[in-house]
Amino acid sequence: MTKAVVLYSAGGPEVLVMEDRPVGEPGAGQIKMRHTAIGLNYAETQIRRGVRKGLPLTYPYVMGGEAAGVVTAVGEGVTGVKKGDRVSYFGNMGSYAEERLIAAEHALPIPDDISDDIAAATLLKGLTAHYLIFRTFPVKKGHTILYHAAAGGVGLILCQWAKHLGATVIGTVSSDAKIALAKAHGCDHVINYAKEDFVAKVKELTGGRGVDCCYDSVAKDTFEKSLQTLAPFGLVSLFGSASGDVDPMSYSKIPLDRYYIHPTLPQYMGKREERLAGLKDLYDAIRKGVIKVEINQRYALKDAAQAHADMEGRKTTGSTIITP
Predict the structure, then answer these.
(1) Rounded (to 5) percent helix, strand, coil in the chain
(2) Count of helix runs (H) and strand runs (E) in the chain
(3) 83 close to 32: Cβ distance less than 8 angstroms
(4) What is the b/e burial string over 160-187, where b = at least 16 CB atoms within 10 angstroms of the residue's CB?
(5) What is the mean pLDDT of residues 319-323?
(6) Are 238 and 258 contacting, i.e. CB atoms less than 8 angstroms apart?
(7) Residue 165: inside a domain, yes or no?
(8) Hey, which residues does 192 pair with through a beta bridge?
(9) Helices 116-131 and 153-164 meet at what angle, rounded to 10?
(10) For 21-25, 51-55, 94-98, 239-243, which range has the lowest pLDDT when averaged over its residues?
(11) What b/e string do you get for 284-300 counting C-beta neighbours within 10 Å, with b at 16 or more?
(12) Of the candidates 218, 250, 266, which is a domain's last residue?
């Protein structure tokens, strides 16, 4: 048996229940792993509320899709991973638990010089940043980019990486308290969009030109304004929907000389070799100090509901991990 955080119906943080669940032994092609650190992502609050599209749930449902830990047993036919190995994974829902089974092909090795906490805090967020700045819109020296929610987990990683690549980085945040954090992690300019019109400020900062790319994970509340920040032939990369889905009518307002893309992690990191290549780049950047990882919140597994409440209440910055 293992302790796990389970969802029986959609709702607020209070619907998360911790209970004992059976684990069993690994079958063919599976491994059993003991979690040491579990990543927390905003998408999980949307799953809990029942508003995450494209993910039909069967209740009861064990929450979470990212973790690091130690392999405790391997099933028949498993090669390339053995008992005692440190591994991480993402995209396999059920990580809010002390122990679980997963397909061995999803286990990604953790290098000796990378801690379990760092792996859990950066895996999904770091690979998201990777595909956004290297593949969706390849950031080059001389580009100017805008990133919404710059003090969040993906934001702190992406903004540092983009700055290292030679871009001018403009970030938006939701409070003055987050400005210093964003500036310390790659942002040349930071806008509190709760107080300032970020479109006007971006135009001011760029001499009226606008940005080459706006990375927008907020969606409904920002999309139309994000389009207005673009330079001619600029791109909005819409990779999340923290405030809700974009009104379909908003797409008709995209100027003919501006572009829009809606990328997702599975599109860019669906193959194992893509994940391993992205992780190599990510861990190399961490080793070299290009990316400083900020784990600013830690919660016990039993406090997962509080973690969700704090994230939705915009009380968190950087990465958050849950400890089994």
Answers:
(1) 35, 30, 40
(2) 9, 16
(3) no
(4) bbbbbbebbbbbbbbeeebbebbbebbb
(5) 96
(6) no
(7) yes
(8) 173
(9) 60
(10) 51-55
(11) ebbeeebbebbbebbbe
(12) 266
**Model pTM above 0.90:** yes
Stated length of the chain: 324
Interval 285-311: pLDDT, tens: 999 999 999 999 999 999 999 999 999
Domain count, the chain: 2
Kind of pairing between the strands at 66-74 and 30-39: antiparallel
Question: Are 173 and 131 in a shared domain?
Answer: yes
Torsion angle defined by CA atoms of residues 7, 9, 13 and 17, in that order, rounded to the nearest 10 degrees: -40
Q: 62, exposed or middle or buried, with CB in 10 Å at 0-12, 13-18, 19+?
A: middle
Mean pLDDT score of the chain, rounded to an integer? 96
In the numeric block, which tokens belong to residue 26?
Answer: 């690994």
Quick: pLDDT tens for 221-234.
Answer: 999 999 999 999 99
The reply to whether 204 and 258 lie within a common domain is yes
As a whole number of angstroms, the distance between CA 92 and CA 51 comes to 19
Question: What pLDDT sits at residue 58?
Answer: 87
Q: What is the dihedral of CA 185, 189, 194, 199, to 10 degrees?
A: -130
Structural domain span for residue 146: 124-266
Tokens 């310390």 label which residue? 184
What CATH number did the domain enclosing 21 receive? 3.90.180.10
241's tokens: 């929907």
| 101: three-class secondary structure by DSSP | strand
- Two tokens, residue 70: 């130690």
Q: Report the C-alpha dihedral over residues 27, 89, 298, 278, rounded to 10 degrees.
A: 170
Q: What is the mean pLDDT of residues 103-128?
A: 97
